[in-house]
Design goal:
298 residues; alpha/beta; 7-stranded mixed sheet; two-stranded antiparallel sheet; 11 strands; 37% helix; 18% strand
């Protein structure tokens, strides 16, 4: 008897048969009840998104078909040419007025390529490859004003990181960036057995809804990202040493001892932040305020 290939997605709602590739991080969601729950959650954003979405990494089209059958217009972004061909063949004719496929790397794709969706704020949805999860999340956060929300299947530990609090072991740069500009909620848990092939860990769907008034300004985003990247690369070090180094770089080497003393005094008096603390102890809002204090000192 021939041994069954456990990497082949077939039946169970898949739009076409496809052998998953490990190097592309392909683990396709097969559980019909979870797929239905994701589509039901998407309906919360139907009005603002005009029932239009971009789907990242549709693979063999299980979620894609459910979205189309529910009346959504879908622009699928898929890097794997085999999947692109299968999607066009299996769904292109049946839903030709509401379905399109862009063969592209999502990280090299910008929102002007979704103009045909006729929605200023489509929903961003998908079961995203785990090995580039953080990159895709930062991609969304940098463009969030162009979306109504994101519904993304990620590793469960990533979902926990996004919603963690200061002092938690999972609290970090991604947490801070997300919480300054979005409402973050874990929608559901997807056990490993819900996928083909099963990954080694459980997954979760996280919902990111852009705040009407994000705390982090778009003009600050890039430099604040570098600020938090430096801070959390030394997450166990006291703020005093790391912030002085960052401030000196931000001000071209002109951040002297007097400026450092002023910064420390203001942080203590205005925020209750003491520079003997560590980055992981500060809330996103306090980190942003310290960042702005440094920017405005000289």
């Amino acid at each position: 008897m021939m041994k069954q290939n456990k990497r082949i997605a077939r039946g169970d709602g898949f739009s076409f048969e496809l052998e998953t590739k490990k190097n592309l991080g392909q683990n396709f969601l097969a559980d019909q009840s979870i797929l239905a729950a994701i589509v039901a959650r998407a309906e919360r954003h139907a009005d603002r998104s005009a029932r239009a979405c971009i789907e990242i990494g549709p693979g063999s089209g299980a979620l894609t078909r459910k979205l189309l059958e529910a009346g959504w217009t879908v622009c699928a972004i898929e890097k794997d040419p085999r999947a692109v061909q299968g999607l066009r063949h299996s769904l292109g004719e049946e839903f030709k007025d509401r379905f399109s496929v862009l063969e592209a790397d999502i990280l090299r794709t910008d929102t002007d390529q979704f103009a045909h969706l006729k929605s200023n704020t489509p929903l961003c949805i998908g079961n995203i490859p785990y090995y580039i999860t953080s990159d895709i999340l930062f991609w969304f956060l940098a463009r969030q004003k162009n979306f109504s929300a994101a519904l993304l299947m990620v590793q469960k530990e990533v979902c926990e990181r996004l919603s963690s609090a200061p002092g938690d072991s999972s609290y970090g740069r991604l947490t801070v960036r997300a919480q300054l500009s979005c409402e973050v909620e874990q929608v559901l848990i997807a056990p490993a057995k819900a996928f083909v092939p099963p990954p080694k860990v459980d997954s979760a769907v996280v919902e990111l809804v852009p705040l009407e008034n994000p705390l982090l300004l778009e003009t600050e985003s890039e430099i604040f990202g570098r600020f938090t990247a430096t801070l959390f690369s030394a997450r166990r070090k006291m703020l005093r040493k790391t912030l002085s180094h960052i401030a000196n770089e931000m001000h071209g080497g002109k951040f002297n001892d007097d400026a450092a003393a002023l910064l420390e005094r203001r942080a203590s008096e205005e925020l209750g932040v003491h520079f003997t603390q560590r980055p992981e102890e500060l809330s996103p809002q306090k980190l942003l305020t310290v960042f702005r204090m440094i920017k405005g000192l000289l």
